[in-house]
Amino acid sequence: MTTELTMAKALNLAMRTAMEADNKVILFGEDIGKLGGVFRVTDGLHKDFGEHRVIDSPLAESGIVGTAIGLAMRGYRPVLEIQFDGFVFPGFDQIISQLAKVHRRTHGSVKLPITVRIPYGGGIGAVEHHSESPEAFFAHIPGLRVLTPSDPQSAYSCLLSAIRSDDPVIFFEPKRRYWDKGVVDQSQAIADPWRARILRTGSDVSVVAYGPMVKTALQAAEASEYSLEVIDLQSLSPLDDKSVAESVQRTGRLVIVHEAPGTLGLGAEVAARIGKSCFYNLMAPIERVTGYDIPYPPSKLEEYYLPDHDRILFAVDSVMEA
Predict the structure, then answer these.
(1) Which residue range forms the structural domain that includes residue 293?
(2) If I label 218, which of 2, 28, 64, 66 is the partner at 20 to 30 A Cα–Cα?
(3) 159 and 201: one domain?
(4) Full-model pTM
(5) pLDDT of residue 82
(6) Domain boundary among 151, 172, 190
(7) What is the pLDDT of residue 223?
(8) How many domains does the chain have?
(9) Where are the alpha helices (DSSP H) in the chain?
(10) Active site residue 130
(11) Could you report the per-residue pLDDT of 187-210, keeping only the tens digit for each?
(12) Beta bridge partners of residue 249, listed in sequence order
């Protein structure tokens, strides 16, 4: 069955599908019940599944994560919503010290099938603590899986896979893409979310992006005089560097794009792996296009902070002229 949906509606459909299939799937978070969440991603689920499965939590992220850990130990599959990216840090201790470690600490006898949904990134003119890109913190932690969709189809497929996973999954949702529309094929729900997707083939430069930057990379590819191959990482941990390497072996050039600051970001890890595995294939130094190494700026300065297709095209020109 195919339907045109916004990303927000695709995420809603994924949760509905999971809840219909398994009564142990419960939703937990601030204002997700009758309100349907700040971005209305859980709209209608409280009415259809009841307050025992769609639970409004106190304003306490540490409590949200800690409660979910207890529920998971009792056989539930909690899906948490952290209202905004900058609000996850009060729950960071629970995620790093408990959620990521219990499975190994118990020699595999206790699983924590918890999905932590986090709207992230800028582009909506939000105030401080409402526009952050903290994905590298979580991708660095063993024991966590990290996913981020870029369009409605990947949002549906990846979230459904995350909820069904027995491992804890940090699920980053690019908030400025919530209202982008696309066709969702529900039969693709079993597609492998841990593999990168080639969204556009090309022969000159491999452009790797994820989350909110994938659309920007595709726009750059449309505008470029060169043939750009656009790759959506989709999974940040585990990282599918094999698919990236195969692309670079064809093109010989690589540009990595992400919204988070450049220092110790995901782009640095991708560059290190590809620099090693494709050393003899690279015809130019790897370029990164990222946010700047400053706290996220006020909304009036967002356009200067966020990578855009002009900055990507500049990087493409740089690797082509090297």
Answers:
(1) 197-321
(2) 2
(3) no
(4) 0.95
(5) 97
(6) 190
(7) 97
(8) 2
(9) 7-21, 45-49, 61-73, 92-94, 102-105, 135-139, 152-164, 213-223, 241-251, 266-277, 302-305, 309-321
(10) yes
(11) 866 678 999 999 999 999 999 999
(12) none
